Structures
1.
Amino acid sequence: MFALTYLVFLAVANAANAATIPTPGRVRTSLNDNWKFSRFTNNPDSLSYNSLKPWLLPQANLFITGTKYPNPSASSPGANIPYVQSSFNDDTWQQVDLPHDWAITGPFGAPGISGGMGRLPTNGIGWYRKTLLATADDISGTKSIFLDVDGAMSYAAVWLNGNLVGGWPWGYASWRLDLTRYLREGNNTLAIRLENAVDNSRWYPGAGIYRNLWLVKVDRMHVAQWGTQVTTPDVSEKEATVKVVVQVENLGGAAREVDVSTRIYAVGDGSGAEAVATIKTVTTAVAAGEKRFVNDSVTVPNPRLWGPPPSQTPHLYLAVTTLSSGSAVIDTYTTRFGIRSITYSPSNGLLINSQRVYVQGTCNHHDQGALGAAYNHRATQRQLQILRDMGANALRTSHNPPAPDLLDLADEMGFLVLDEAFDCWSAGKTANDYHLLYPEWHEADLRAFIRRDRNHPSVIAWSIGNEVQNQESALVAREAIELQSIVHSEDPSRQVTSAMNAATPDHALPATLDIIGLNYQGEYGNYAAFHQKFPDKMIWGSETASCISSRGTYFFPVHSGNNNRYSAVGSSDAAARYISAYELADPGWGDSPDAVFVAQERFQPWVAGEFVWTGFDYLGEPTPWGGQGGSRSSYFGIVDLAGFPKDRFWLYQARWRPEKAMVHLLPHWTWPERVGDVTPVHVFSGAEEVEVWVNGVSQGRRKKSGKGVYRFRWDEVKYQAGEVVAVGYKDGKEWGRDVKKTAGKAAALAVSVDRAVIDGDGRDLAYVRVEVVDDKGTMVPRTNNTVEFSVAGPGKLVATDNGDPTDMTAFPSASRRAFSGLALGIVKAEKGAKGKITVTVRGDGLIREGEVVVTAQ
Ligand code: GAL
């Protein structure tokens, strides 16, 4: 036992990631590599969800409390389909690694796919095939072999050696199938069928096995799927109670006794090889085919609490649960968790560990821009790092369960997560969205989601819905009551909300919810009415802003107020489909960031904060140009689709990280056609005062002009070529500055990379930024030169982008038009590669090429 403890300690002390901890008795391996794939736009197999449904529904039985779905007696469909046979020759199919999104390579303009869904070919039927090797031990009768799917879009059905094993229709669900029964020694043929309808989403959903796949091998007696629940009901700096519930499952043919014990380790704590607490061993007998809960708690002295930076630190712990019999370890199951308390205060907002934390959050969809929905750890980490740099401390996983790994990152980085389940309930928003599944699957989907995510300290509340239809209706209130009680039964430790844009305080819906989450209507003044009606509920802006802009494009005249409709004169160029980056435009609902800040301030301290729509631009929903001939991706992001911050980024940074010495001025200063014309200069900064000069002539030193003003503005500045300088002051001293210079002709490419060293695992990414510059190195802000990426050495160009919502060049293209001076190349190493990867970028015309070297190791 000592050896195990020591091994576990070493791993815990050295790694932040629970995936690297040794787990005797349990083997979990990635099934991501080496798949064969084919997509069909005409049904190649005559199957449909309806014909498969009777065999899929019993999968939900583990997650429903009422009548179970019967196992059909008829023989299962699909056995005669060539793709499920080992004899089928798939040589002509595409070779792919997972996570895989079949639609992201385009082209744009897919028939039948709306602008709202990103104009990419998500629809159709996709078949995936892989050979699985099983050992004699795997099929000896003592093992359970599970397929764990983090997410497959959508209507998945799985065959092993020609036998339908099961599946799960909802594309955002994580699910498990037991392969044991059909597994045989040697080669096994695993085949997965997916099907996506058109009109199944309001945004780009992605298509394919777009999240990780795992093979789990355990003894038939094991900790069940998501079989632990760790909570910290009492937390102080002196001590914390850690409560651990373990669900032990016996899939063997006979009753067995097993010893269950759990040790708690501090992750990354180099203080000693000992567990910080141990839950006493309990012996339990589990009948064949049954489950037993074992539950106990322990005190952790002097706990290192989990909380969001900068005021707190996200310390993590690991619960290592061991099932054993005598000296033999049967299973080891790890649960990473945090020790922290949450208080939902109606009068003071959100408190973490009794300290008020104002929610500075963003909503985000699940795509990763040019990589699509295919989950990538580094891409997600980069997004979170950019948001963190801005000062964000919270995320809303709009409007569906995220990839599990995103929550691991959030735990490690200390983000507060509003974990959201659904965009609709029984009434849909598009013809083929979740409302089709809701009646039969909502309970299973919701319970599975909560069980999967409830041990993450980052999850601070659950959202059961977003702007569901008919918020005034009695039916919706009944649905909310049912959904919320499902959540409470799976997790009594957190509160529940649903994001409401249309409900009023008098409707039944808000009365049913723990937290009042308002979309936009808070800014219309409705926080007060809800607060008055529900004085015992916490309130926040579950969705705010929806400001729209395209990075680096500015239009005139600039609106003198805080907020303006995108269609107003000076807000946008409808023909070009760009919206002004003065960051004042809204789509007809929502507001500029400034106007949201006004509403938030007005209701402090009781409004707990906001979740901005959105942190990043996303594929689809290119409001206001979602129609025919429109754009491909959204304008809502604070950061564009390529990950380049729009000007708004610094407006949020000024408010959310006021201590950061930062001055950001806009617009760019290359306006040959505007000489002598009014060209307002706006400055985003946490400074007390800012002075602006144009070619050395002061335009005045200004304070923010009063309460409710979040930007410094010089609306009367007349343009002259040269330079504009803004200097910020605090306590009368210079605190930061920004300069924009008039650029000459494009002459060179300035190429840089976010990380010079990446893992040579074929998954890690280097993001290469290309700036078109003049001969003095000044960025040329209005260029649309095409740049061409090439990669030498053991690497590969994955995709390119520029953050331009109107650009219909497919993402894998090596050639990309720069947008407002910038382009992006995403590069990875070949699998197993080591060495130098040289990325060269060439421009058209007389532009000098640029180059950057990335080392794979
Ligand atoms: C909200 C909705 C979001 C998105 C947004 C665009 O009403 O919840 O999903 O559509 O509008 O402004």
Note: Residues 399, 466-467, 501, 519, 543, 546, 587, 590, 613, 621, 636 surround beta-D-galactopyranose (CB under 6 Å).
2.
Amino acid sequence: MSYIGRFAPSPTGPLHMGSLVAAVASYLQAKSHQGKWLLRIEDLDPPREIKGAADNIIRTLEQFGFEWDDEICYQSKRSELYEEILQQLNVQGHIYSCACSRTDIHATGSMTAFGVRYAGTCRAGIARGKSARSIRLMVTDTSIFFADKIQGNYQQNLHQDIGDFVVRRADGQTAYQLAVVIDDAAQGITEIVRGSDLLDSTPRQIFLQQLLDYTTPQYAHIPVIVNRQGEKLSKQTRATAIDTDSAGAALVHALCYLQQQPPRSLRHATVGEIWDWAREHWQLQHVARQRMIKA
Ligand code: GLU
């Protein structure tokens, strides 16, 4: 089977070092397998999106010399497909409407290592006088295991750790967990290389893949870059946008985060030369088995 990888940024701001590292890792992993590398814009969260951010990310990737295969996929244009799959899950009896507000969820839920576990309040039906807000997927009391290529063996029991989770949000948008599973399957993704902040989401995604009869891809979760306060670099933590005028330096920097040990001589090389070196020397097994790396 031929390799298909992807990079799936959310357009919540310009590309920063954390997202560049994810792009570089997924790209080199695909290219070292003579695979395809697809670009998907995960624009399903209008309140968090910044106008122009998607174009800005695409332009930045171009300036870095990334080349993606096929057309760019925009999740905002795929609601019909998501709706169809949601219907299918409904017919199979896997989903239910939920009337709980954030306050209800916190009041009735229990705290686990992964946040507030949903208590399942609306599983048996919505209480009289309340109206449906979101749609949730029923999970089962079984353990989901997977072997991450970087982080090693990982296990979660969705019933105990997470509870029934949202597949359609109160604002009517398809939730990330469902959209990402549908698109990874539709695009034939064979391996997902992304930040370790999504490690905890992977069992939910594998559970959905099993329900929908999709093949589960391989996973490799790279360490996320955190600031001095231990917060993941993101727009919310005011991560600085990548300076494309010094793309070469940023690329070498990204390779250092990924423990690829680029030679000193590359510091003055062109972006093309850096990519040539990186393609030839990329080793996923050199990436640190850590959830976080300090910036
Ligand atoms: N859109 C997500 C993000 O930017 C990544 C999703 C994924 O790689 O599965 O954090």
Note: The chain is about 30% helix and 20% strand.
